[in-house]
Structures are given as structure tokens and as C-alpha cells.
Write a structure and sequence with these properties.
The protein is an alpha/beta fold. It has 17 helices and 14 strands. The chain folds into 3 domains: 4-50 and 156-315, Rossmann fold; 71-139, 3-Layer(aba) Sandwich (Rossmann fold); 321-399, ACT domain (Alpha-Beta Plaits, 2-Layer Sandwich), CATH 3.30.70. Strand 7 (171-175), helix 9 and strand 8 form a beta-alpha-beta unit.
Length: 405
């Protein structure tokens, strides 16, 4: 099994080529959570993910003949970029096999970092099968994303740095996919501070490590915002380490992860991906579990699609009651729209969007329906606007955030 000495050796090997990311205290998140929240910002790595640590440590261990053969990896995201970047920097040819459905931006980023990208299959499993065929034909060295002692040692340098910077931490909260990060962190942290608690976090749709430890058949499914930890089968090596050293694995829902992404962006002005926000989601969802503790949260990465982030931020405003939809029915005659918009402004609302519908609603032919998306200071302002419109003779009502119109 990987040891603390292996992790210290990994730290020496990757020093100067992988960032020693900061561990920052969030006063506001601490107040919200009722715990002392400290964030390990792995989203500040060059490729915006902790994956660089393990990938580089594995690549540095290659012998001269292996370097000539090149490397191959299977990934749809962060591991792909880490391998591509460091292999290219070291002069090692890298091939990354990705599912054909991988978002264009991830394919482009991996190619930009120097790897040959091969798109094959609709799933990671199908991509892996193609990678096996390529490996048999071309004989490159396979760089596993998590189930490799050198990769685990590299990931463990995260916890090494955390406890050097904050030896008073009571618990580390770490996202769990295949298990490389949580396994490495558990080995390092428990060696440095035997009494520290390690808590893993999985997306509720992909509880593969928790199921494996319980001896259950894997049952994972669905679209998750936390793609980085959406792993169907955890590692064999990592599973054994997690079983020995990790106190608990918590599950977080999509809504909880989404809220954590939004809070981190709004409060700390940090862009984090779903997997990176999972530890915060777990602490916020389990306040009694972490109350009063000094919690080190591993923000594992920041590679989130810009469009998805935009949706998360706007949905956060809706969830917090700062963005509402108000429907107004008015007479279909000139001047009515301008009268309503002026009144909403006077009542303190900022109109973000307007949809004007004369034909498709079940209202009298001489009436028209107008839906306003309105930004407000707080949730109580919505009713004030509705009441104000009604007081001026307009039929108005607030639509729920999930109304279909």
C-alpha cells in the first residue's frame, strides 16, 4: 500500500511543476455552515484540477524505454488535461481516448495541451475498451486516473500541504470518484495526525464507492453536475484504503451541489466545478455532523462549462427569491405594456426579460398575457409588486420557480 514516505517522495518529485495551492479560510461560509471552513484551492492549478499531481508523479516514474513508447489515458475531463499537459512538457507522446459525446471544449483543451485525442464510443467504458485495443497495437504505457500507487501518492500531496498549513484541522472533506484523491489524502493525513477524521463525498446519483464498501451491486445513473466524480466502478486499490482509513462517505443531491457551486462563486468569487463543490455541499447539508469543527474542504477543480455555470448562477437567484416570474393580464390596447413596466420599476423591480403572448393562452381575445422575469432585492418584494399591480387594476400573480407557464 502507498505510504506517507511515498507521498513525501511524490511531493519532492512534482515540486516546482505543480502549484502549492493556498488553503484559505472562508469567514462567510463558516458562518453559514456553523463550522470553521477552510478551502484547499486545487481549482488554481494550471489545468484547474488536482489531477496534475498524480499524473505527473506517474509520468516522472517512466523509464527511458517507456517514455519512447508514449502514454495512453482514458478520460472525459480533468485527467485527460493533466496527462496531456505534463506528458507534452516532458516530451512524451500522449494519446487520450475520450467518449465521442465529450463536450467540444474538453476535447479542444486536451488537444491544445498537446495530446492526440481519439473519440470512440458513447460511454467511458466503451472508450476504455478502445484504449485497450490501441494499447495492444501501439504499446504505450497506460496512465490510470486513480487505481495506481504512484497516482495515489501524487494526490496525497494535497493533504500533506493542508496539514502543514493548518495542523489544527479536525476533519478533511474530500470528493470521491474512483477514490485516488480520498485514498491519498487519507494516507497522508492519518500518518501526520492519527486522530483526524476523513470524510468522503459522492454525488447521490453515483454512490459507487459507498455501494462497493457495503458489498452492494453498483447502481449508478443519471446526469450529474459533478461529472468529475461520476464513476461507475471505484478502484480496487483505492477501495481497500478507503475501507481502512475513511470514516464515512456522505451523499449529496444535485440541488445541494448546485447550491454549493453558486455559493462559492457568489461569496468567495471562485469558479468551481460540481465535484469541487461537493465537500461544501456535504457540510451544509449535514450541519450537526460538522458543527464547530475545523473542516478542510478539498476544492478539487474548477473546470465547469461556462453555459452550465451561467445556468447555475441564474437558478441560484431564483432559488434565493431574488429573481421571480410575474404574470400580468392586461387589455390588448396601446400603452398597457409601458404602464406595467413603469409600475414594476416604481415598485422596486428590475425587469430582466419579458414574454408577451396574445395567442396561446386561455384568456379573452381582447386581453393579452405578459410574463416578466424580475430581479428584486429579496423574496418579500415579489408580493409587494404583485399587490401594487393589483392596486392599479392589473390582474397579476407570481409564478412558482418551476411553473411551466
Amino acid at each position: 500500500m502507498t505510504t506517507i514516505d511515498d507521498i513525501r517522495a511524490a511531493r519532492a518529485a512534482i515540486a516546482g511543476e505543480v502549484a502549492r495551492t493556498p488553503l484559505v479560510t472562508s469567514r462567510t461560509l463558516s458562518e453559514i455552515a456553523g463550522a470553521d471552513i477552510r478551502l484547499k484551492l486545487e481549482n488554481l492549478q494550471y489545468t484547474a484540477s488536482f489531477k496534475e499531481r498524480g499524473a505527473l508523479n506517474r509520468l516522472l516514474a517512466l523509464g527511458p524505454e517507456e517514455r519512447k513508447r508514449g502514454v495512453i489515458a482514458v478520460s472525459a475531463g480533468n485527467h485527460a488535461q493533466a496527462v496531456a499537459y505534463h506528458a507534452t512538457r516532458l516530451g512524451i507522446a500522449a494519446t487520450v481516448v475520450m467518449p465521442a459525446v465529450t463536450p467540444f471544449i474538453k476535447v479542444a483543451n486536451t488537444e491544445r495541451l498537446g495530446a492526440r485525442v481519439v473519440l470512440e464510443g458513447d460511454t467511458l467504458a466503451e472508450a476504455a475498451a478502445h484504449a485497450d485495443a490501441l494499447a495492444a497495437a501501439e504499446r504505450p504505457v497506460f496512465v490510470h486516473p486513480y487505481d495506481d500507487p504512484l497516482v495515489i501518492a501524487g494526490q496525497g500531496t494535497v493533504a500533506l500541504e493542508m496539514l502543514e498549513d493548518a495542523p489544527d484541522l479536525d476533519v478533511l472533506v474530500v470528493p470521491v470518484g474512483g477514490g485516488g484523491l480520498v485514498a491519498g489524502c487519507a494516507i497522508a493525513a492519518r500518518a501526520m495526525k492519527p486522530g483526524i477524521e476523513i470524510v468522503g463525498v459522492e454525488a447521490a446519483l453515483y454512490p459507487s464507492m459507498r455501494q462497493a464498501l457495503a458489498g452492494e451491486e453498483p447502481h449508478v445513473h443519471g446526469e450529474t453536475i459533478a461529472e468529475g466524480i461520476a464513476v461507475k466502478t471505484p478502484g480496487t486499490l483505492t477501495r481497500a484504503i478507503v475501507s481502512d482509513l475513511v470514516a464515512d462517505i456522505l451523499l449529496v443531491s444535485e440541488a445541494e451541489i448546485e447550491r454549493a457551486v453558486h455559493l462559492t462563486a457568489e461569496i468567495e468569487k471562485l469558479v468551481v466545478e460540481g465535484a469541487g463543490a461537493a465537500p461544501l455541499a456535504a457540510v451544509l447539508t449535514n450541519p450537526a455532523r460538522f458543527a464547530g469543527l475545523r473542516c478542510g474542504l478539498v476544492v478539487s477543480g474548477g473546470n465547469i462549462d461556462s453555459r452550465l455555470l451561467s445556468s447555475v448562477l441564474m437558478r441560484g437567484l431564483v432559488r434565493d427569491g431574488r429573481l421571480v416570474r410575474i404574470r400580468v393580464e392586461v387589455s390588448d390596447r396601446p400603452g398597457q405594456l409601458s404602464a406595467v413596466t413603469a409600475l414594476i420599476g416604481e415598485l422596486g423591480g428590475n425587469i430582466v426579460d419579458v414574454h408577451h403572448d396574445r395567442w396561446y393562452r386561455d384568456i379573452p381575445v381582447k386581453m393579452t398575457g405578459i410574463d416578466f422575469v424580475v430581479e428584486i432585492r429579496d423574496d418579500s418584494a415579489a408580493q409587494r409588486i404583485v399587490d401594487g399591480l393589483a392596486g392599479h387594476g392589473f390582474d397579476a400573480r407570481r409564478l412558482s420557480s418551476d411553473a411551466d407557464g
